[in-house]
Amino acid sequence: MKLLDRIFGCLLALGAVGHGLGTFQAYHNTPMTLLWALSASFAILMLAAINLLRTARPGDRGLAWISLVGCLIWAGFCLWFGRLIGNFFDFRPLVNLIVSLVLAAFSLRALLRAAA
């Protein structure tokens, strides 16, 4: 399970890189929008790093809580983006939603194990 947890953490990091590249391609002529979109890429990358760190520190409840809340917030943003583009089943929000919910489940699992 630990390997699967790490794989999903890496998938989130790859999604952050993809978001950054797509952002630059789409908004290179509008610096203000580019800045905010790249800040989202950075936030996704940091969330991926937190999740990968959590896999190495299974007894750290604080880190598991941060990971859980961050993943749930990111899932909310994915749903919001799907609503804004008018398609919840678009590849971009759907994949991010799935990855973030799986990581949230792993975070919850880590919390429950650390409490026992």
Helix-strand blueprint:
Layout: H1 2-27, H2 31-56, H3 61-85, H4 91-115
Helix pairs in contact: 1-2, 1-4, 2-3, 3-4
Structural overview:
This protein has 116 residues and is mainly alpha-helical. It has one domain. It is 88% helix and 0% strand. It has 4 helices and no strands. Helix 2 runs antiparallel to helix 3 and helix 3 runs antiparallel to helix 4. The relative contact order is 0.15.
Quick summary of this structure?
This protein has 116 residues and is mostly helical.
Which labels suit this protein?
116 residues, mainly alpha, 4 helices
State Rg.
15 Å
Strand content: under 5%
End-to-end Cα distance, whole Å, is: 18 Å
Average per-residue pLDDT, rounded, comes to 96
Low-confidence stretches: none
**Helix coverage percent:** over 70%
Largest sheet: none
How many separate domains? 1
- Overall geometry comes to elongated
Question: Would you list the SSEs in sequence order as H and E?
Answer: HHHH
Annotation field: number of helices: 4
Count of individual beta strands: 0
Q: Which class of secondary structure composition applies to the elements?
A: mainly alpha
